[in-house]
Amino acid sequence: MNKMIAYCGLDCEKCDAYIATVNDDRALREKTAKLWAELNNAPILPEHINCEGCRTDGKKTVYCQSLCPIRLCAVEKGIKTCGDCASVRGCEKAAIVISNNEAARKNLGL
User: Fold this and answer.
1) Residue of 13, 16, 3, 12 whose CA lies nearest to 81
2) Is residue 18 part of a domain?
3) pTM of the model
C-alpha cells in the first residue's frame, strides 16, 4: 500500500499540512492554521502545520502524532491501515472518516 495513505484511508498527499510542509509554503501554513483553529476551537499556529504523512517516520502535526484516535489504535495494533483490521466495519473510530469519504473507503479496500 502507498505509504502516503493514512491509517484511516485518507491520502496524506492531498492534505494542506502535508502540501505546506513539502513546499515550505508559509501562506498555506497560515491559511491552514487559521481554518483548523476555527474548526477545532483550538490555538493552532502556522508553526504547528508540519506533517510528512501519517505513516511515515517524518514530522507530524500534534493531532496526527498524539491525538488522532485512528492512528493511535492502528499503531497499537501494529496494522498498516484500518483496512487490515478485522473490526473496521463496526469501528466507531474509523467511521469518523470512512462513513462519509468514498476515496478513503476505496483506499482501504472497503
Assistant:
1) 3
2) yes
3) 0.86
